[in-house]
Amino acid sequence: MKISYFCLTCLFFLISHVNDGFAQKKKIAVSKPAVFNPADRPKNLSDTALLELVQKQTFRYFWEFGHPVSGMSRERSNIAYDYGDEVVTTGGTGFGIMAMIVAAERGWQPRDSVAARLLKMMKFLSKADHYHGIFPHWLNGATGKIVPFGRKDDGGDLVESSFLFQGMLAARQYFDRDNNVERDLRNRIQWIWSEAEWDWYTRGNPNQLYWHWSPNNGWAMNFELRGYNETLITYIMAASSPRYPITAQVYNKCWAQSDHFKNGKEYYGVKLPLGFEFGGPLFFAHYSFLGLDPRKLKDQYADYWEQNVNHSLINYKHCVANPGKFKGYGEDSWGLTASDTYNGYNAHSPTNDFGTITPTAALSSFPYTPEQSMKALRYFYENLGDKIWSEYGFTDAFNESQNWYAKSHLAIDQGPIIVMIENYRTGLIWKLFMKDPDVQTGLKKLGFESPALEISSKN
After folding, report:
1. Residue 237, by phi and psi: left (phi above 0), alpha (psi -120 to 50) or beta?
2. 16-20, 141-145, 209-213 — which is least confidently predicted?
3. Which residues, at least 6 apart from 20, have a Cβ–Cβ distance to it below 8 Å?
4. Which of helix, strand or coil describes residue 454?
5. Are 197 and 144 in contact (CB under 8 A)?
6. pLDDT tens across 322-334, in order?
7. Residues in a beta bridge with 131
8. Nearest to 395 by CA among 410, 382, 383, 375
9. 228 preceded by cis ω (within 30°)?
10. In degrees to the nearest 10, what's the CA dihedral of 277, 278, 279, 282?
């Protein structure tokens, strides 16, 4: 398999930690219900009721399992790869923040309780390790000190930070009331956001943007952010910065200049404007678009609604065609993306397919493939629920050919399920993020067109 077909994040993770697989996994000692029996899950639910249940149950990962000191999202629900239960993830926390907005809006938790939790997180982040205002991939959730993601990955992570800031800016828009907690929350978000030095990560070159910088290892990681992949949001955040923005030149000369940016080919009869052969892992259509609304979003390179719908359809059609003849694939069981698998962790895609289906792939694609995603949701819940339904929603993945069903949950997989189902149902997070004035400035700077920008220009 070509290296370029992996999400770079997943690749770093594999290089750094795959040596001992999952052999040493232990359950984190946290408070959980004494007994959870998936066989007792509600039956015969309407589509609406099932969507609500899945969102609400999955939210428990972020609310009940959040770190008790910082409130941040834990990386995963099990200890693996020699790191402990204090590890929290910055990108997964960004997804969790957006999930908490959904919870406040739907009344799963009181608005003031959610605002207070987010304020605790911002107070923690204001003192946590950062590198020119950019946070590392992992932090110790009790102390705020960096937990290195890899041997040289011990500094700022621009991509994970962009996922975090995507959530923070959505929260800044939602929690707009004139009371002490929400006012303090907005002010702290603004302070942390304004201090992030996105332009530092160009190394002074207007044609480059880099993923990492470390005070110990400098630019040794040497990964430029070249598309097309999950890092589109990083460019938008960097261009939107009120104090340390990048220019449009970086977007056009770095992001859009690679051998896997433009595509234009057809796969299973579906044209793919951008990206890898067959589209790559499906999280490319999710992570950047939890806040960024792809509906009628266009720039000189693509129509991003077409891009994401077609990417999702190709992934679906591949699983239906099932060229690898894996057990369980079909119209109601599909979705290839990065996740745990029976022999470790992998970035699954049509060109890297070993029979592992990851529920977040189909479920986070609800806005793009509602009919196909609903079929998958019902199959996961009704047919496989005894094996993959849990107190935190669906477990991470399964492989019926190997008779393997994960017990683990990952923040970066659970969060998009909640947020993208909500965007399908109401567009809530899309509306919040797209009305942020800084975001609108960044989108205009990079040459994007969107109905949200047209609305703002009229007001």
Report:
1. alpha
2. 16-20
3. 81, 82
4. helix
5. no
6. 999 999 999 999 9
7. 134
8. 410
9. yes
10. -140
Q: With beta carbons less than 8 A apart as the criterion, state whether 187 and 171 touch.
A: no
Say if residues 290 and 317 touch (Cβ distance below 8 Å): no
Q: What is the pLDDT of residue 31?
A: 44
Which tokens go with 224?
Answer: 């430029």
For the entire predicted model, the pTM comes to 0.93
pLDDT band at 78 (very low <50, low <70, confident <90, very high): confident
Cα end-to-end span (Å), the chain: 50
Buried b (16+ CB within 10 A) or exposed e, 245-272: bbbbebbbebbbeeebbbbeeebbebeb
For the segment 224-265, what is each residue's pLDDT rounded down to a tens digit?
A: 999 999 999 999 999 999 999 999 999 999 999 999 999 999
Q: What is the DSSP letter of 72?
A: P
Amino acid at 35: V
Q: What is the DSSP string of 75-134?
A: SBSEE-TT--TTEEEHHHHHHHHHHHHHHHHHTSS-HHHHHHHHHHHHHHHHHS--BTTB
Residue 238, both tokens: 């960097």
C-beta of residue 38 within 8 angstroms of C-beta of residue 405: no
Q: Which two tokens stand for residue 222?
A: 């040497």
pLDDT at 449 over 60: yes
Residues with Cβ within 8 Å of 168's Cβ and at least 6 positions away in sequence, in order, are: 94, 97, 122, 189, 192, 193
Give the up-direction half-sphere exposure of residue 152: CA atoms within 13 A in the CB hemisphere.
Answer: 12
- Asked if 209 and 240 count as a contact pair (C-beta separation under 8 A), the reply is no
